[in-house]
Input
Amino acid sequence: MKLTDKQLGMDRAISRRDFINGVAAVSAASAVPLGALAADKPASAADYPPLRTGLRGNHPGSFEVAHELIWQGRTEWGPVIDADADLYDLIVVGAGISGLAAAHFYRQKHPDARMLLLDNHDDFGGHAKRNEFSLDGKTIIGYGGSQSMEEPSNYSRVVKRLLRDIGIDIQRFEQAYDQEFFHRFGLRGATFFDQATFGQDQLVNYCLLDPTVFLPAAATEISARQAVAQMPLSENARKDLLRLLETRGDHLHGVPVGEQWDYLYSISYREFLERHIGISNAEIFALFQGLTLDTGASIEESSAGTTIGYLGLPGLLATGLADSGNEPEPYIHHFPDGNASIARLLVRQMIPGVAPGSTMDDIVLADFDYARLDEKGSPVRLRLNSTVVNVTHDGALQEASQVTAVYVRGGQAYRVRGKFCVMAGNNAMVPKICSDMPTVQKEELALATRSPIIYTSVLLRNWHAVQKLGVGYMVSPGAYYGMAMVDFPVSMGGYVFAKSPEQPIILHMERFPKGNDRNASLREQILAGRRELYATPFASIERETRTQLAGALAAGGFDPAEDIAAITVNRWAHGYAYERSMERGRQRHGRISIANSDAGGVAYVSTAIEQAHRAVRDLSGL
Output
């Protein structure tokens, strides 16, 4: 049954930030966090960005200037005012983890350096985004972007040293992460078939992705055969799906086991299904289109290696790799706010007055005073809401002794000067900002296309329905979000994760839009997905969020109007960097060097840190 907007709770007084033709439109309701969500701390949503709800990530006001630069070719921003008379030792463009790490590394080499970091968003951290809520006097923390430190024992010495320098002990997460939580409450993986796609809402307690790749979920209690029998599919599709789920033995005929991973990364998931499982059913292909998640592409463009090995799509048991014995590290290295705490630790270390404390634990609940980020006289200043549109050398490239950066803030153009500059933002923007770069370098930087992502944090007043249905991780092959899960159960620094279904909890939901042309190139699918993001208002995303949860959790008594307390949509039009070599693009250009995970071609926090270190090293000989 299709629910009305009122039944969904669309009339409830929650914060809604939207944009019309690229201009922010903020309703009166957004002046407070969410009706009952009055902040139980000195900060408010007005002066503490993590408390802001509605559209976050690339929020209204963060991208308009950049789009004028890129899409309209605008180069004039009116009279340029000198922001201050200082000559900074280093200017960093982009205050995400890579930009913050670059400032950290530069300060280690030059302890007395004066640095200015500029970022176009209203919060620091880049994709390491903290989502914070306050409900009935309780603080609930989630993440809206960069999620976890993945297999940190394999990090390079550079990354391990930085983590150690800012006080992170990787072993701490073994106690902070409640690894028995999902078992204790019987939370398993599930698959939700939505009414709009499959003709009925049907939740099956069997997951078409392996949830244990990311969560220590409870074991599935029904067999593949029992699960498939419950799925709203045709008889032929059920037979093909069951064959895929039950096939055992090495079906990668002619490919030595030692070469099978390389082979799987060389073919698409669709090719794997056709060539090695013998599936040609269009219904099965359509089923898996919504489950490619992080790849940001169709099964025709997503590699079998990524979908099977990283995401957990079915097929591993049909290879010679099923018993390889290479168990990955547990996916537990996660602060309550994801990697936002890494950014907070870096900021606090460089600007001590911004927050109290000195440990990885106390950073979780530390009160950040954003007014202290950009204080005159501070050796490190971090300036938000500032979109850099031009960085040039003052004089001929080989003779210049400094660079000038122009940024736009509140419609006014400002000028700052520095001896050096690290470009640590979206690398695809660099050719437009640093227009005098060599053509070959600009061409490679322009290819740093990122896949679009929506990470939505849904605050529930309680999670009785979740426990009753036993759903901790849910994939949805046809619905708006491809995946939803109970947030990671992490308690540290005085912050305590929900201990019972009566307490509020965050559901994390993910969408990777890619357009409707499954045979389009990866780049074309990314661009189509990005167009969707910018064209979709918050109200539409909210309606999709409520509708999907209402359909999936209805049997557990879930009421979207009553049970949803808040929704924060983290919209990342430029999300995951997809893998490519960027050796030419990241070369130093005079007094300007290039950082960001784009420069490493892989969207990992470790890559962002490594590229920051290299960027600073590139400047060391000047």
The first strand starts at residue 17 and ends at 20. The chain has 21 helices and 19 strands. Confidence is low (pLDDT under 50) at residues 16-42.
